[in-house]
Amino acid sequence: MRQYDIRFAIHNHGPEDKLWHSPLDVLKAVKGLDPRLGCCIDVGHTVRAGTDVIQAIHEAGPRLFNIHMKDLADFRDKDSQVAVGEGKMPVPKIFQALAAIGYQDFVDLEYEIHPDDPMPGIIASFAYMRGVLAALGQTNSC
Description:
The chain is α/β, with parallel strands linked by helices. The chain is built from 5 helices and 6 strands; from the N terminus they run E-H-E-H-H-E-E-E-H-E-H. It is globular, with a radius of gyration of 15 Å. The model has no long low-confidence stretch (mean pLDDT 94).
């Protein structure tokens, strides 16, 4: 890792994961270690774990290396995924928090529903996120 200057991100997996249910668990584990050890925040798993995703982004700061974006109709139900913008995820606040910490890395869409015809939901998700970014005056877009 150090020899090749590679960053390593641990991905949280919600309340079912005994070690990494919240990004805050990841941050506790890497605190004081090499700054190339960080986290990949999965926003869906984060809210299902009962963690405030906006707080987690701010706490991660420079140790946030990746975001997995999705939206849920019910924060207690992992099977309630919907296109981004159709659920309860605070997407504008997420992008505001990312801007506030100077985040420059990827926001990856995780669209895990409608496997026989995912494109309408994927297109709607990207359209919504682009609209949020435009409304926030962000020049970088998805």
